[in-house]
Amino acid sequence: MNILEQIVANKRREIAAAQAEVSIADLERRPLFSKPVNSLKSVLKTAQMPAVISEFKRQSPSKGIINGTVRPEIVTKGYADAGAAALSVLTDKNYFGGSFDDFIAARMENPGIPMLRKDFVVDAYQLYEARAIGADLVLLIAACLTPAEVRDLSRKAHDLGMEVLLEVHDEAELEQSLCDSIDMVGVNNRNLKNFVTSVDVSLELAGRIPDSFVKISESGLKDAATIWTLFEAGYRGFLIGETFMKTGDPAAALRGLQQEIVNSRAPKHA
After folding, report:
1. What pLDDT was estimated at residue 270?
2. DSSP string, 33-56
3. Using CA atoms in the order 124, 128, 133, 139, what is the torsion angle rounded to 10 degrees?
4. Overall CATH class of domain 3-263
5. What is the maximum span of the chain, computed from C-alpha positions, in angstroms?
6. Is 194 helix (H, G, I), strand (E, B) or coil?
7. What is the pLDDT of residues 178-235, one digit of tens each?
8. CB contact burial 228-266 (16+ within 10 A = b; e otherwise)
9. Which element (helix H / strand E) includes 205?
10. Which parts form a coiled-coil structure per UniProt (predicted)?
11. What is the mean pLDDT of residues 64-89?
12. Residue-wise pLDDT tens digits, 12-40
């Protein structure tokens, strides 16, 4: 059993325990459940420059503790002030050190910016959880789901008012999982089975993602030159976490990258 399979098996046990304690009706009564949704798709479709989706992540299976002392409300407010297009907050506890408390703290501090619940969604119950903590969009990882599950979960997310980011790692996942209820396609440059990272994955898949879907590149993004190359290839959003979180001041790291992006040579078509 690889690490991804271990995470999903643990996640299903977590869901069963959560459902035994909190009903969907209870989740629907939470104050944030009816919060108006901030659209990331709209932000990215009109982006004239690379748009950074900044992530709050305490740890990961491959890196261990990345930054265990930071507070989500402070880091994410700093991200927003530094020009982040959206925020991603991990809610998986066992493998990434995240929590609903982290997400809600970030949500309350940043009511007007799109926020992604970053987790391993394998059951519709988690979509109600996401809405209840104020998420604007959810992540569906193709490697964790069948094409039918991607279709059903994405439609349910839309029914609940949220947008959907489909994450793929290769052409097979893309072809099998893409459907009309997906809003954005994220190409993860990190293989979740062995955690090897290469931005060539995004470049290889860029032309295979239909232009009707907003394109996002994820993981392994560290410099403005690479980001501009991917922007020219059609990507509009760039999800970055570890590059920022491993520093003493994640927001300052984002500001520095934003300045590099602005100062870099503009893409040929700009």
Report:
1. 43
2. GGPPPP-HHHHHHT-SS-EEEEEE
3. 30
4. alpha beta
5. 55
6. coil
7. 999 999 999 999 876 667 889 999 999 999 999 999 999 999 999 999 999 999 999 9
8. bbbbebbbbbbbbbbbbbeeeebbebbbebbeebeeeee
9. helix 200-205
10. 1-30
11. 96
12. 999 999 999 999 999 999 999 999 999 99
- Mark 7-17 as b/e (b = at least 16 C-beta within 10 Å): bbeebeebbee
- Beta bridge partner(s), residue 214: 184
With a cut of 60, say whether residue 93 has pLDDT above it.
yes
Q: Which of 217, 183, 224, 225 is nearest to 200 (CA)?
A: 217
* Residue 29 in tokens: 């009564």
State the pTM of this model.
Answer: 0.94
* Residue 46: count of CB within 10 angstroms of its CB: 9
Cα dist from 248 to 55, 86, 107, 245, whole Å: 15, 21, 22, 8
- Predicted pLDDT at 206: 97
Helix ranges, 22-161 (H): 24-28, 40-45, 72-81, 100-109, 124-132, 147-159
